[in-house]
Amino acid sequence: MPDTHATLAADSDEALARRIAVGVPGSTDAEEAELYRRFAPRVRLYGRRHLRNDSAADDLAQDVLLLTIERLRAGEVRRPEEIGSFILGTSRMMAHSEHRVARRREALAARFIDPVVETAPISVTAFDAPRVVPCLRALAERDRLVVLLTFYADREAPRIAADLGVSPGAVRAIRHRAMARLRDCVLGGARP
Amino acid sequence: MTSTRCERIALDDLTDYAAGELPEAEAAAIEEHLYSCADCGARAAEFDSLVRTIGPAVRSAEVGGFVTDAVLNQFARDGLRVRTFALSPGAFVPCAVWDDDEVMALRLRADFGGATEVTLSQRVAGTEVSRTTGQVDGSHGEIIYATPAAGVRQLPVVEVEVLLIAREGDAERPIASYTLVHGGVLHRSHKARGVS
């Protein structure tokens, strides 16, 4: 009996989209899950860049993919061969809308309530903290600090540069080097 | 055999993109490609996973080193319990962490005299027990060193000398020293019961 996941993994995005579009409700769960698996990380990355908040990026990925699947089922995606473009367009539309809602929410919060402590994002990840901790420790001091300031404290290069007394270009170069080392270390540690 | 995998979006591009530092047109071009390319999409997924794990890894309070106020502020926003000691050169201070502290932060004040690379050496009874070297900006007369409180809790009652040394080429120049007198762990539950 063929492995459904392995079979679907070999299918193109277009093939998945077409099958969801013509399938009766409930018969394309595996295809929908595969479409979600493929695109959710890309939408989350998009959300991280545009919404600057991991929780909001998680929500965006879920909303975008649910809407995409609904539109496919309803036959409202005219060009399944361009499903990636459709998902990107939906990401842009929903992020823009979320951005406006978030701005309004922040303005209201600033006026009426105390700052809320954000919780850790809940998302499915291939890496876990115990694997990343020793790799962060292994980075050079400045490299680690730039990674923390960028991806933990959400600081942009000019502010990091001012904090560290270096140029924004140097921050960028340090970050490139540090992320390459971090990735190599984490992937290296993943190998048996 | 040559690889046919698409390599158009490299790790550096993803890093710049996620850091929000690309011009809109460049970012949009990356997005267009990422959403239509399976190879680059898979690379983006791996990168997204790595970036997302940095926060939980840092929040585990097992990563220390030289930090800045921005990192300490994020610790506070994340609800981490940080025990901070602000030390002037020559300071001799009792130092203890509570049993629920997660990070100990040392604000080390000194005249850094333009030093850009500093070694922080911790010594017990004249023997070096740890050494951390990094590039720092001491132009404001202070650097911050964070260390997991769990490690501090394991120390016996002991005096730890903290030496700051400027590194200039092959030469080393002492900047300042501080002495922390570790008095063991403070138990918040005991305090609540009125036990000192």
Poorly predicted runs of chain B: 191-196
Oligomer: heterodimer
CATH homologous superfamily label of the largest domain in chain B = Immunoglobulins
Task: Name the biggest interface.
Answer: A-B, 63 and 58 residues
Number of domains of chain B: 2
**Uncertain residue segments of chain A:** 112-125
The dominant shape of chain B is elongated
Tally of helical segments of chain A: 9
> Kindly state the mean pLDDT of chain A as a whole number?
84
The appropriate CATH architecture of the largest domain in chain B is Sandwich
Concise account of the structure shown:
Chain A is an all-alpha fold. Chain A contains nine helices and no strands.
Architecture overview:
The complex is a heterodimer of chains A (192) and B (196). Chain A is mainly α and 192 residues long. In chain A, 73% of the residues lie in helices and 0% in strands. Chain A has helices spanning 4-9, 13-22, 29-51, 54-73, 83-112, 129-138, 141-151, 157-164, 168-190. Chain B has a five-stranded mixed sheet. A four-stranded mixed sheet of chain B has the order 1-7-4-2. The radius of gyration of chain B is 22 Å and the shape is elongated. With 196 residues, chain B is an alpha+beta fold. Chain B folds into two domains: 11-59, no CATH class; 65-192, Immunoglobulin-like. The interface between A and B is large, with 63 and 58 residues.
Topology:
The complex is a heterodimer of chains A (192) and B (196).
Chain A: H1 4-9, H2 13-22, H3 29-51, H4 54-73, H5 83-112, H6 129-138, H7 141-151, H8 157-164, H9 168-190
Helix pairs in contact in A: 2-3, 2-4, 3-4, 3-5, 4-5, 6-9, 7-9, 8-9
Chain B: H1 11-18, H2 24-34, H3 38-59, E1 65-67, H4 69-77, E2 82-87, E3 92-98, E4 103-109, E5 117-124, E6 127-135, E7 142-148, H5 149-153, E8 158-168, E9 171-186, H6 188-192
Parallel strand pairs in B: 2-4, 3-9
Antiparallel strand pairs in B: 1-7, 4-7, 5-6, 5-8, 8-9
